[in-house]
Amino acid sequence: MHASSRDKMRRFVDQHLGHRREQALVVHDLGSQDVNGSYRDLFDAPRWRYVGMDMVAGDNVDLVLRTPYAWREVASNSVDVVISGQALEHVRYVWITLLEVARILKPGGVCCLIAPSSGPEHRYPVDCWRFYPDGMDTLARFAQLDVLEVSTQWAPEGYADGSDAWQDSVLIGR
Q1: Which of 12, 94, 136, 159 could form a disulfide with 163 if both were Cys (CB 3.0 to 4.6 A apart)?
Q2: How many helices (H) does the chain have, and how many strands (E)?
Q3: pLDDT grade, residue 28 (50/70/90)?
C-alpha cells in the first residue's frame, strides 16, 4: 500500500469513525494481505475488532474467502465497517463484490473503498480496472449503498514514494 492510500484511510477513520472509538465495532478489510503495508493499526481502538479478509492466506489475513463474489464465511448484516484499499482493481466482476459489501454491512454501517484512477498495470494476479468518481458512485448505487462521499486525487500532493501516480478514488458509502 502506498502512502497516499494510507493517508486517505486515516482521514476516513478520523472523519467517520473518530467519534466512535469507545463503541464496539467490527471492521472487515477486503484485500488485507500485507504486501507492502496494512491499515490494521488505523483500526486499533480497544473495542474495535479488525478482520483482514483476502483470497489467499498471508500476513494480515484473518479470514480467507473462497470466492470474491459470495462471502459465505461472513453473515449478512454482521459488520459495522468494510474497508478496502488497492484491491478492487484486481477483482474481475467488481460490481458483484460490491453487492457482498452491502450484504455484510449492518444497517447504518459504513464502507471506505480506495482504488486507483491511474497508474501502471500491476497484475496481482489480474489488473482489470481504474475508477473515476462517477464509476465509484455507479458501483455504490448498483449495490444500493447511500453515497456519503466520492473523490479522486487529481492533483499531485508530493508523496515521496511516488503514490501520486495512482490518483486514488475514494468511495465512502452507507
Answers
A1: 159
A2: 3, 7
A3: very high
Render pLDDT for 30-82 as a digit per residue (tens, 0 to 9): 999 999 899 999 999 999 999 999 999 999 999 999 998 999 999 999 999 99
What own/partner pairs with CB < 8 Å and gap ≥ 24 does 121-128 have? 123/90, 124/35, 124/90, 125/90, 126/90, 126/92, 127/89, 127/90, 128/89, 128/90, 128/91, 128/92, 128/94
* CA triple 134-101-28, angle to 5 deg: 120
- 70 Cβ contact list (under 8 Å, min separation 6): 100
Q: Where are the chain's structural domains?
A: 3-173
pLDDT in tens, 84-97: 999 999 999 999 99
Rounded Cα distance, 30 and 100, in Å: 11
pTM above 0.90, yes or no: yes
CATH assignment of 3-173?
3.40.50.150
Q: How many CB atoms lie within 10 A of CB 148?
A: 15
Q: Rounded distance, CA 150 to CA 135, Å?
A: 10
Q: What is the DSSP secondary structure assignment for residue 92, as one 8-state letter?
A: T
